[in-house]
From TrEMBL:
It comes from the Bacteria. Keywords: Membrane, Transmembrane, Transmembrane helix. This is Xanthine/uracil/vitamin C permease. The keyword Transmembrane applies. Residues 560-570 have a biased composition (Acidic residues). Residues 548-570 are annotated as: Disordered. It comes from Rubinisphaera brasiliensis (strain ATCC 49424 / DSM 5305 / JCM 21570 / IAM 15109 / NBRC 103401 / IFAM 1448).
């Protein structure tokens, strides 16, 4: 390796803690929801420790090592020492969707944990194949899509699902989390150096962990500890209990199990309506993250990056994991931390050790999640800022409109969770009685409709708006037609609702018995109307065909103006 680009730098420790916390959240989520909803607890917990976690380790290690190697290749090619590897790990949306719409339904129907696990393997494999095939044409999508469209989607996700979610955790357990938050902001906003040159992320996590255990030691000695103290303590018994899961769990090839179920087409065909949309979402999401990296100064080849996504996910399935992996959102945040390639390598190694030794429970019982979430919050902040800073100034309205569907998706997720927790009147009950039912002034039907396929909706609305800003009326009409196609096929806006469970309603698929159905035909027609308006606008436009984007030298965003581009006006 080049001496100018070492295997590891001190700032990789900060990046490691951020990426590790991100991956640890996913692993703990798997532990909790698979145990609670899919029967993988007690005697059946071995499906997690023997298959799913080791399989996840294979996919994460392979991906992290590849992206570290890719960063070294780019550094050598461009003669730079500041290249940051793409972050990589388990895909959270796919994790949740596959549990709720694949594993849990199979377990509830059959009562068999094994059947649920095998169906999860098929879903994971299918997603990997779709992602691998998608790498063949992803670069063309990226070429013809305005940067505002790609980055605004990530910013919307960062606002709701990263920044907001982790901010709530910080203020829920402030005694543990707020000092680490202050340390992270001190290190990264004001670039303050800590004694001995210690990385801010390491200082923050160590400080939060020490404070948590001090509070845990103090609370039992008080006759009546106040509630604000009790909510900031840890459970010492969880540490001792976690030793029961320790052991050596080497990855096992499960190709025979997958092939056995693949041969029974009728068993898995009904889940294609879940697998295909998630595979497509993963392609688009990864594409946006590669664009985000280029906007931050690191131009990685699109096809190999997305192909690794697919290969990593296929590896996960072949070695027992039900959950796809993906390029993570947040490359500019890790770059701002000063991380290079070492953080990716270190994350892959540590996660592999945890997954193959049963140490996941022990690590989570010792280190409070809140001690490290400030690092992930920082990542979210940088993503949001980049969406505006790395695009032309006059495309700011396009970035803004692209935020709305993702924020609506976050609101829909929170709303659905509240209905589940309330265990009373369901969303289906309310919408059946009144299709215009509201929650605190927000239309339930509108929130759910915006949530379905929101990654596509964010990108399309922002792209359409950017094209109109540049007076590319034909290009804008093409994006509107794409939106109409996505809507009519069910990839966007349409849904079926059973109780509080929201699912896609794809074209030609039969809705579940008793489900409330929302067909987004009207929205599709509306998109066609927008396309027609854009086409007509070409005949009475009064300005030049293209308005040069106004942006400063720091903005490297490009809007395709190639004469041969199908997205340019004639």
């Amino acid at each position: 390796m080049s001496q100018s680009y070492p295997l590891f730098v001190k700032r990789d420790i900060d990046g490691f803690f951020g990426l590790f916390i991100d991956n640890l959240v996913q692993l703990l989520l798997i532990l909790g929801i698979c145990g609670g909803l899919c029967g993988m607890s007690g005697d059946n917990a071995f499906y997690l420790y023997r298959y799913i976690f080791p399989g996840a380790a294979v996919s994460i290690l392979v991906g992290n090592l590849f992206f570290a190697w890719q960063a070294h290749r780019l550094a050598a090619k461009e003669g730079r020492s500041d290249v940051t590897a793409l972050p990589y790990g388990i895909n959270t949306p796919s994790l949740l969707v596959y549990v709720f719409f694949v594993l849990a339904p199979v377990y509830n129907q059959t009562g068999s944990v094994e059947a649920a696990w095998k169906m999860g393997l098929i879903a994971c494999l299918g997603s990997g194949v779709i992602e691998l095939l998608g790498s063949l044409f992803a670069e063309r999508i990226r070429k013809y899509t305005p940067r505002a469209a790609l980055l605004s989607t990530l910013a919307g996700i960062a606002i709701g699902f990263i920044a907001m979610s982790f901010t709530l955790q910080i203020f829920h357990r402030p005694l543990i989390a707020m000092v680490p938050l202050g340390l992270i902001l001190l290190a990264l906003f004001s670039h303050t150096r800590f004694p001995l040159g210690m990385p801010g992320g390491m200082v923050a996590v160590a400080c939060g962990t020490i404070v948590a255990w001090i509070l845990t030691a103090i609370a039992p000695n008080l006759s009546s500890p106040p509630a604000w103290l009790a909510t900031n303590t840890l459970d010492p018994s969880a540490v001792s209990a976690s030793f029961g899961t320790l052991g050596l769990y080497l990855p096992q090839f499960v190709g025979a199990e997958i092939w056995g179920l693949l041969s029974d087409v009728d068993a898995w065909l009904g889940y294609v309506s879940v697998i295909v949309p998630m595979g497509l979402f993963n392609i688009v999401g990864s594409l946006q993250n590669v664009e985000s990296a280029e906007a931050g100064g690191d131009s990685f080849a699109t096809a190999p990056s997305l192909a690794m996504n697919g290969i990593g996910t296929i590896c996960a399935a072949l070695f027992g994991s039900c959950f796809p992996t993906t390029i993570y959102i947040g490359h500019p945040g890790w770059k701002a931390l000063g991380s290079r390639a070492g953080y990716s390598t270190l994350n892959g190694i540590v996660v592999t050790v945890l997954c193959c030794s049963g140490l996941i429970g022990l690590a989570s019982s010792i280190i409070p999640m809140e001690a490290g979430v400030a690092i992930v919050l920082w990542i979210g902040i940088i993503i949001i800022a980049q969406a505006f800073q790395a695009t032309p100034d006059n495309h700011a309205p396009a970035v803004a409109i692209g935020l709305f569907p993702a924020i609506a998706a976050w609101g829909a997720t929170v709303m659905a969770g509240a209905f589940f927790s309330a265990n009373g009147t369901t969303m289906q009950d309310l919408l059946t009685a009144n299709a215009s039912a509201e929650v605190n002034g927000f239309l339930i039907e509108g929130l759910i409709s915006m949530e379905r396929g929101y990654i596509f909706t964010c990108m399309i609305l922002a792209a359409l708006s950017a094209c109109l800003i540049d007076r590319k009326f034909y290009a804008a009409s093409v994006w509107a037609f794409i939106a109409a196609f996505g809507t009519f096929t069910g990839l966007m806006h349409s849904f079926q609702l059973q109780g509080n469970t929201i699912d896609y309603l794809l074209l030609f698929s039969e809705p579940a018995e008793g489900a409330l159905v929302f067909s987004a035909t009207g929205i599709g027609i509306g998109y066609l109307g927008i396309a027609v308006v854009c086409i007509i606008a070409r005949s009475f436009r009064s300005g030049p065909d293209h308005v040069a984007p106004a942006h400063d030298s720091a903005s490297s965003a490009e809007v395709s103006t190639d004469d041969e581009s199908v997205f340019n006006d004639a």
